[in-house]
Amino acid sequence: MFLICYNNNMDKQDYLNEISNSAKPTATNNTPKIFSSKFFWAGIIGITLFIIIIIVGSAISGSKNSIKDKLFSLILHISYTTDVIKEYQPHVKSSDLRSYSESLNNVLSSDTSSLTTYAKEKYDYKTKSIKESVQEEEQTYKDDLLSDLFNAKITGSLDFVYAQKLATDISLIQSRETQIIKATSDSDLRNTLNTSYESLTVLYDKFNSFSESK
Known about the structure:
Shape: elongated
CATH topology of the domain at 72-208: Ferritin
Number of helices: 6
CATH class of the domain at 72-208: Mainly Alpha
Number of strands: 0
Helix content: over 70%
């Protein structure tokens, strides 16, 4: 009797276990189907590439605009420097300094011609197309330079101040040329600026080492 009850209890227990196991939820992948879709990931990749293209395109466009603005500014600056030379060179006493000044004027005049021709062909350059802020900045620089030279003239120190101011200006022009050389891949523009840079280096040494005692 006891054995029969025991077996019956065991059968019931097995039966209950089977029901319990069958009622347990089966493990499922909770990842939404959209994330496992190849079309979803293809879309993500496509959007990412599109954004990269936009960023690269903007960078290239910005680089071109930067070269254009730097070139326009350089042309205007050189033009103003030649104006200053023409105004004050006749008042310089040293024949050596007048000779250096004449050579500088020739280099800068040649630069203006070459760079303006290039800018017209490449960027449809016109003086009025230069940004107003750039024109104001360059005009202020020119006015300050003229003021310094005027004061030097009336105090009898024009030659020394003239030499030092032009040495500083040559260094500034070379710095701008270097910026454009590094930014552009145009061989014609690079060659023009490199030639100018080399010529200006020689003249910088002459102006910078000028002494009225010679």
